[in-house]
Design a protein that fits this description.
The chain has about 450 residues and is of the alpha+beta class. The protein is built from 15 helices and 10 strands. It has 2 domains: about 230 residues, MetI-like fold (Orthogonal Bundle), CATH 1.10.3720; about 130 residues, no CATH class. Strands 2, 3, 4, 7, 8 and 10 form a 6-stranded antiparallel sheet that branches.
Amino acid sequence: MTATLLKESPRPAPPATGPDHRKRAKRRSRMIAVLFVLPALLLLGAFVVYPVLFSVGRSFFDASGDRFVGADNYTEMFRDPATLKAVRNTVVWIVVAPALLTGLGLILAVLVEKIRWATAFKLLLFMPMAVSFLAAGIVFRLAYDEDPDKGALNAAAVAVHDTFAGTSPYPTARARDGQDLVHAKDGSYRTGTAVPAGSTVALPLIGVLPGDLPSGAKPARGSSLERAEPGELRGVAYLDFVPGGEGAPGTVDRDENGLPGMSVQVLRDGRTVATTTTGADGSFAFEGLGPGRYTLALPASNFAQPYDGISWLGPALVTPAIIGAYLWIWTGFAMVLIGAGLAALPRDALEAARMDGATEWQIFRRITVPLLGPVLTVVFVTLVINVMKVFDLVYIIAPGPVQEDATVLATQMWLVSFGGGNNQGLGSALGVLLLLLVVPAMIFNVRRFRRSQR
């Protein structure tokens, strides 16, 4: 009975291995792959392909989008001075920023390997990547402020300048109208009437707040008003002002203070004969003068305005200043990528070079850099693509009056389309130009990546 059942039980069919089955299996695999890729393809088409095709088509129409103008937007693009300046600034960004970032990243990646707290150091340098461009732009807009009381960089510049060059003692001082002090073209004050040797001269000034006087200032009435000896010129430079309005203009009153530390010159025939500095009571004296008449002068250095720092966001420096902010953000990115390539270098080659007596500089220049060539190229090209699209920093850091001096293609495209220009035809043409500039670098990077994978 058992044998009969075993004989009658059906055997499993052999697996199909024919050509039709293989075709069906390949078709099924393709369908599954398409189903997995379809969401990404839909998003890519909706957010990349369609906007690109729409922008290309829109670039052939006028500002309203109703009239076909052909290539007029492209010709207008290269006739517009603002667009040409944007192209020039974009070229500056492409040439300067990626090269500096790649060089800084390489140097820092090599140096980090030599310190104990390498991880902490990398973290500090990479932290700016976590800050949005908007926040970074606001931070650097404040740091570049021209007011030393607000801008950190100008505060440091003023501190260094005042340490080595000093400051003008009385920047707000001026002569009172109707007195015998004439304002010269070079900014100095001179006596309108030449005086002979043996005279005593009073030099009254106003415009200095009593609180701005040096702490060591003394009343001007003193030995400075005594009669001068032959061959001598004496006098006093003083603040011709008494709180409450008392006193007579041009007269050294009891409560009026001298102006200490003021430079005084004596001139003859337009040439400087001698120079001195006023004392605590504003007094000065010149001795050993020959016969003749002399002119007293207060040099312009006494009244020079205080040093206010550097105009970081002026037309001349606004682009380098923004590039500096960009370096602060992206240096950590370049350092980490190059550091990863550096960690993959064959250590036996480096150790063999050291054993052969090569210096660290020779190892860096002849071994490390050539072996890191592919990594440096990828970092450089990636940064080139990135700087072509920079928008946030330029738009936020550059003040309105110098926005045109700092504009790049991305900001110019936005300004022309939405920032007041309302010409989306010309803006679309600028977008197409930007795409044409970015695509070659992207293709180069993709091909480089594929070759490295092989």
